[in-house]
Specification:
It is built from 20 helices and no strands. By secondary structure, the chain is mainly α. It has two domains: 157 residues, no CATH class; 162 residues, no CATH class. The longest helix has 46 residues.
């Protein structure tokens, strides 16, 4: 029922006292009014009986026996009135000043609301947020075994996977895109822009050269160059056409182009097949010099920095954080919502495996039990005061009159039974006292 009350009043203000929904409040208020009337009715009955007995005793001529009975009833009614009035005062004094009179030590809840909140917080802290008490309770519960048994039960791992998926979807959909893109920009784009690109790129290239990783690249480049020469004989025809004079005969064009083609093909084939070819060594020297220039040549470093600024200012890079988040968010939403997705199936499989491991592996159960115990101790020892202060601070923030009304609404019905019992028990006590007094008189007279 308490959970229903919390759900019925979402996001209460600090000064608003939580409680049942309006319909439930109305029902409880009617019950409280009804029981107040019952208690008052009993008190009135006692008063009427007392007055009637007084009238009878002073106006009617009664025999000894009748007089005794009237005295008995009158004493019981009188004691009932005293008991009922005393308990009415006590119950009323809890919430307000009886008859509106500012009698000391009345309106206890109203005048001591904050102190009651602190006392309640202290009581909870001492008796419920005690580390040893919680740990002892957790150890008796055998939580790891219960978790393992629950996860191993068919359907429960899938349920957990679905709940995790729903949590992921909720988190993604409730995340501020601007904040996330700002974080991505700070972590990726801004970090990339901070250092000069030239020196670290030069050091990386130098390391690749030292480890021999550039040789396969040169080899692949030589093979690619040879393939391009083989595939483009027309390219050499165009070169010859551009270089030879227009009056040269056509066969000279053909001979020159063919010779140039064969020479280039032979040259590129040598480069592609000879690892020690001079062209390869020259290319390796160029790469090594470039690696050194990236680190030490101010002009090269400046050119790389200019290139960096152009890259970072490009539309592709400025849009990168938003594009990354849209891709991540879309993929997470899709994966988390689909029970057959890789993410959901992996979560389900892991939970089942973990549950079975808890049932079969004593060491795993001991590990989880230790983890839970340490976690409980850490939370209670480091945040117990925060949790208890939440109680006292929340109660201190409540409106005083509303607090009094809500508390009376919650427990007032039961307190009215105290008033009824005060009248009834008082009457019985009065009757008992009268009987004992009569008995004492009889004994003394004998």
């Amino acid at each position: 029922m308490g959970a229903d009350y919390r759900n019925s009043n979402p996001k209460p203000a600090l000064s608003t006292v939580p409680g049942p929904p309006p319909a439930e409040q109305a029902r409880r208020r009617d019950e409280l009014t009804h029981h107040k009337r019952l208690a008052l009715g009993l008190l009135i009955v006692a008063a009427v009986v007392y007055i009637a007995c007084q009238v009878i005793a002073h106006t009617a001529e009664l025999g000894a026996g009748a007089s005794w009975w009237v005295g008995l009833i009158r004493t019981g009614a009188e004691a009932g009135m005293v008991g009922g009035l005393a308990d009415w005062f006590a119950v009323t004094a809890l919430f307000r000043h009886p008859l509106g009179l500012p009698i000391p030590h009345t309106a206890i809840v109203k005048t001591n609301k904050d102190r009651i909140g602190r006392s309640l917080a202290g009581f909870v802290g001492e008796n419920f947020l005690n580390a040893e008490l919680i740990i002892d309770r957790l150890q008796k519960m055998n939580v790891p075994t219960d978790i393992g048994r629950w996860l191993a039960t068919p359907g429960n791992a899938e349920l957990c996977s679905r709940k995790v998926g729903e949590a992921i979807v909720w988190a993604v959909n409730n995340t501020d895109e601007k904040e996330v893109t700002a974080i991505i920009k700070s972590a990726v784009v801004d970090k990339a822009a901070e250092p000069a690109w030239g020196p670290p790129a030069g050091r990386l290239l130098e390391q690749l050269i030292a480890e021999g990783h550039t040789e396969p690249v040169i080899e692949q480049f030589a093979a690619w160059l040879h393939r391009q020469a083989l595939r483009n004989p027309g390219f050499f025809d165009r070169i010859v056409d551009d270089k030879l004079p227009g009056w040269a005969p056509g066969f000279m064009h053909t001979i020159a182009a063919d010779k140039l083609y064969r020479e280039v093909i032979g040259f590129t084939e040598q480069i592609a097949t000879d690892p020690t070819h001079e062209f390869r060594r020259h290319l390796a020297r160029i790469i090594a010099e470039f690696a050194d220039d990236l680190q030490h040549n101010d002009r090269t470093i400046a050119k790389v920095e200019q290139l960096k600024q152009e890259v970072l200012a490009s539309r592709a890079v400025t849009d990168l954080p938003a594009v990354m988040w849209q891709s991540i968010a879309g993929n997470l939403n899709t994966q988390a919502s689909d029970s057959t997705s890789l993410l959901r199936t992996k979560i389900t499989a892991w939970l089942v495996t973990f549950g079975n491991a808890l049932l079969d592996d004593t060491a795993r159960r001991r590990w989880l039990d230790t983890l839970i115990t340490k976690g409980a101790r850490f939370i209670t020892e480091n945040y117990g005061d925060n949790l208890t202060s939440l109680i006292s601070d929340t109660i201190a923030g409540w409106d005083t009159d509303e607090t009094v009304d809500k508390i009376e609404l919650m427990v007032g019905k039961d307190l009215q039974y105290i008033r009824m019992n005060g009248t009834i028990v008082g009457s019985l006590a009065g009757v008992a006292i009268y009987l004992l007094s009569s008995l004492a008189v009889l004994v003394a007279g004998a």
